[in-house]
Task: structure prediction
Amino acid sequence: MCGIVGYIGSQDSKEILLKGLEKLEYRGYDSAGIAVMNEAGVTVFKDIGRIADLREVVDYDVFASVGIGHTRWATHGVPSKRNAHPHQCETERFTIVHNGVIENYELLKQKYLKDVDLVSDTDTEVIVQIVNKFVNDGMVVEQAFSETLRLLHGSYAIALLDCENRDTIYVAKNKSPLLVGVGEGFNVVASDAMATLQVTDQYIELMDKEVVILTKDNITIKNLDGIVMERAPFKAMIDASDIEKGTYPHYMLKEIDEQPAVVRKIVQKYQGDSGKLTFDKKIINACLEAERIFIVACGTSYHAGLVGKHLIENMAKIPVEVHLASEFSYNMPLLPKKPLFIFISQSGETADSRSVLVQVKEMGHKTLTMTNVPGSTLSREADFTLLLHAGPEIAVASTKAYTAQLAVLSIVAEVLGRAQGFNLNIDLVHELSIVANAMSTLVEDKHTFEEIATEFLSITSNCFFIGRAHDYYVGLEGALKLKEISYIYAEGFAGGELKHGPIALVEKGTPIFCLATQEHVNLSIRGNVKEVVARGANPCIISMDGLQMEGDRYVLPAVHPVLAPLVGVVPFQLISYYASLHRGCDVDKPRNLAKSVTVE
Ligand code: M6R
Result:
């Protein structure tokens, strides 16, 4: 969601800001803008739509070596030019970009801005107008900025320009991600290092409620009480080529194709000197000491958690519950004395998950984050982290992060089982290498999944996914993938539940994708297919070698049944991709969605 980039140096800032915003496009947005500052003052360019639209309205003749930029994902007020950032105070002295949600902005408006005509519907404008008011009341800018921040309830990452001080960008953050990038004779600020990797790979992490005074040669970090904080930069470990599409038409396709390599990399990263899979002893102990594990996640990561529960319960015999982060607070389960919380999050920034993390940490419970992004908020704030090693995932629709989550969860299950001396009867290193090979076969066979997308999804407006056991959870993920990028109404159902309601939705020609990779439920799921066929459905059965029956549309290469979800999901990813493509949708940036969901 919303992305911020800022530059202060000697070069012209416009292209650095625009390129930075393009790198943040993956986060999801509906409008964008930049503000550049020079002797003539601050000039703001903004527009709804894509960065390409913003580029059309930028005046390239304006030279300005200081600037801030923003991609907005609407929360307060519709997506419009008026609500797009940057926002200015009524005198136009101060200009702001903001990521996050200010929960008490209405109250602040009533209390401090009764006499000010606000021009937007945003919570953001309130911040910049209050800074201006405090300065008019006699505060110096830094004090006015800190005092304003003290009033804000909610989350923010902020960059602020003062056209009466062209040497400074004021920066602050609370609960929303923001990094300061260190350069020679320039400095930058960005929501994600990816945005400014083109100019520096050195970054300084900011903590909540810190303020940064950024000049081209200096970075001064203070807390809200004005105490200076010292912090060394770190090197962003992102390979610039990882965030390029290369010859691929879409990131999603690239990321689907990367899955075999990701699984192999995970095995390599988690293999100890003895060749056995392992991870930090402290994490193993924390898991083994837990009476019960609570997996908390959202969306695709939640779907991975559902499979993870069975892997851990089967191999490690530790009871596991899986919860949607957004529901956890309202529906808090009874906790044992020693629970362990595992947060699964590709981005490590998801606000719903973070809110549970904060809550359970306050209760004194142990926490582990499983994430793709080292140094992300959830990783920093949890007691332990296990990395997914999937490389940057840019497409909004998660693919390789999901299979990476499943692979790491299987490793966690196996390591915990072995640590307790259980005879698991599975050589996971070997089985994961078979999975990687099977995935390679599937991604080589793209044209078949394109044909399936054409055959089943060309004219439909709805479609269902069914399965039993692990295949049910993969169906949930298949349905999410399809709906989010093709906008076809799709739902996943447990095969046995059809007759308890969903079968009423089946009409002549309704496409039903059925995954059949689990021997112990093969006959039952086939029975469910018969039920829907009897009501006119158009079934597409994807089975696994050894379990196939006449009429199956695709047979997956055989893998160990507990790892079948890693392979079973690939056809659904590719079918969704082609359905989206054929419908002319924006595959990588589906409408209304954001990659990193930083508001609750
Ligand atoms: O970064 P996270 O894994 O915490 O994100 C959770 C969900 O927002 C995410 O999985 C979302 O459902 C994806 N768009 C699914 O493709």
